[in-house]
Amino acid sequence: MTLENILSETDDGICTITVNRPDKLNALNKKTIAEIGLAVKHAEKDNSVNVIILTGAGNKAFVAGADISELANYNLEEAKALSKHGHDVFNSIENCKKPVIAAINGFALGGGCELAMSCHLRIASDNAKFGQPEAKLGLTPGYAGTQRLPRLIGRSKATELLLTADMISAAEALQLGLVNYVVKQEELMGKCLEIASKIKLQAPVAVAEIISCINTYYSGKDGFAEEINAFGRCFTTEDFKEGTTAFLEKRKANFKGK
Ligand code: COA
Q1: What pTM value is reported for the model?
Q2: Any catalytic annotation for residue 134?
Q3: CB neighbours of residue 149 within 10 Å
Q4: Is 253 among the domain residues?
Q5: What are 12-44's pLDDT values in tens digits?
Q6: Are residues 223 and 208 in the same domain?
Q7: Which of 50, 140, 199, 224 suits 212 as a labelling partner, its CA being 20 to 30 A distant?
Q8: Is residue 177 part of a domain?
Q9: 250: DSSP letter
Q10: Does 249 participate in catalysis according to the annotation?
């Protein structure tokens, strides 16, 4: 499958995946969702990649939602299949063993907000706007907005945003805990790279286990039990040996991700 709507570039351990439909404000048609899934899977398997940054082309939108022109005439079965596909791809981002940072460079509406929420960290530029406007279109969110938004910002405010279809500013998103940082647009990629560079110094196996422990809790399973197992598994890895040995030898660790 050739990637038509996605750009992917890896530099020094950081893979930047860009949704590239700027004339449609990077709206997600079916093909684009599939391509995001493929690009993330590819980066997850690539040993040269430590961290993934997901962003939108241009300086106006991260992703302005599902492509309304594509879904406008769907029937029940087509709509459910679309939603299931979106859930599968977005779950694969959330469960990616490598951290995925959303660099939110503008509108993150509907599927765009849902895409950002499936990432592990969210950094927004000061012109970013967030919202789940689906009710305005006679829809529920289809890519887990009703599930991830309450988990991220709490039930009261999430319910308000979902029911009013209100759009909020980057500053409000920061106040609600929807994003980690808000920076000037020209500083967005720099801030993402700064965080990615810190993560890159950590042991990849530990990073993957931490993601898994957090996801276990938020998927309604026993995260406490998962942490005990993950902690134990770390002791069987070369990264653990290297991390502790490097500390004792007062040198920088050289992790292999094994
Ligand atoms: N699906 C399909 N096309 C979309 C889109 C979407 N979700 N969001 C934007 N576009 C397209 C517009 O149709 C327009 O295309 P055109 O130039 O061929 O007419 C282009 O992107 C630019 O958008 P435009 O609406 O002209 O920009 P704007 O600055 O006036 O408004 C928004 C920006 C984001 C407020 C507005 O585009 C919007 O409300 N988009 C839909 C958001 C939404 O409801 N998302 C949830 C979908 S389930």
Answers
A1: 0.97
A2: yes
A3: 24
A4: no
A5: 999 999 999 999 999 999 999 999 999 999 999
A6: yes
A7: 140
A8: yes
A9: T
A10: no
